[in-house]
Design a protein that fits this description.
Helices cover 24% and strands 23% of the residues. The chain is an alpha/beta fold. Strand 4 and strand 5 form a beta hairpin.
């Protein structure tokens, strides 16, 4: 039986994001997963309130944070990883295919300061990589489809799937971002659902499914296989791809897509300040004439 991981969730209602602190109960070593930087798009103001709550929780529980783990370059919130790295000294880790995501978006925003080699991050992880958090074993699973760089972390008995899966009554992630693919997403999810049925699954977002009036973020492999409305057992790859393609065509772009991508492919860092000392983010303009 896999070792028990102590998991504490932090829900950000502004972006419907769930960040996690995962701790080895015996050694009190821990990691932060997908931390959120508070950002108000209308004013351009950022704050570290949510990240500081994670730090306060670690301190109160006597946890030594040894890594900061990103599941992918998020399109719906900005990462607080650099702030947490500064406060804890923990390296920031992400999947090695972040280089592909950087290559996709660097020309979109004309970002001369983005490397395309992933050097904005401290550790690039590959499928099958393993490491320990105290006595807890961690395995890295490359689970592309939502983005090319998505990875999931199996930490003891707990699986952190990023945006790949949602709660069973809400389904699965979109696959229409550049580099995304519904067919690849299906294969990635089915791979995850081959894990032992009792494996706990922790999702990165929840939006309250129809008929549910509370937020939720913990489920199991067994529950996903039996009840996921998009990809439960018995749903074929072609059925999933048809559903996902139709559904994605109706979805609006995430509110923070433009700032989030620019920041997150830089490892959560801001662009270099300009001559007046101010940081700026870009908005690509597409002009369509009415005639």
């Amino acid at each position: 039986m896999a070792q028990w991981a102590d998991v504490q969730a932090f829900f950000d209602p502004a972006t419907n994001t769930v960040s996690y602190m995962v701790v080895d109960p015996s050694t009190r070593k821990g990691v932060f997963i997908d931390p959120v930087l508070d950002y108000d798009h209308a004013s351009g103001k950022a704050a570290t309130t949510s990240a500081e709550l994670m730090l306060d929780a670690a301190q109160a529980a006597g946890v030594d944070i040894v890594r900061i783990l990103e599941t992918h370059a998020h399109a719906d919130h900005l990462s607080a990883a650099p702030f947490l790295k500064e406060r804890t000294g923990a390296p920031v880790c992400i999947g090695e295919h972040i280089r592909q995501v950087q290559s996709i978006f660097k020309p979109v925003f004309n970002l001369d300061d983005v490397s395309e080699d992933g050097s904005e991050f401290d550790v690039l992880l590959s499928d099958g990589d393993t490491f320990d958090v105290g006595d807890l074993p961690v395995k890295v699973l490359h689970t592309p489809g939502h983005t090319p760089a998505c990875i999931s972390y199996l930490i003891g008995d707990a699986l952190f799937v990023g945006d790949t899966l949602f709660m069973p009554d809400y389904g699965t992630a979109r696959a229409d971002f550049p580099g995304g693919c519904a067919r690849i997403l299906y294969a990635s999810i089915r791979r995850l659902l081959e894990l032992p049925p009792q494996t706990r699954i922790f999702v990165c977002h929840d939006y309250k499914a129809d008929g549910r009036d509370y937020f939720a973020w913990e489920t199991t492999v067994e529950a996903q296989r039996k009840r996921n409305i998009h990809i439960r057992d018995g749903i074929s790859e072609d059925e999933f791809v048809a559903m996902r393609t139709q559904r994605d065509s109706s979805l609006a772009a995430p509110t923070l897509l433009l700032p989030a991508i620019q920041v997150n492919i830089r490892g959560g860092n801001w662009p270099q300040p300009e001559s007046n000392g101010q940081h700026y983010l870009k908005i690509p303009i597409t002009y369509e004439s009415a005639h």
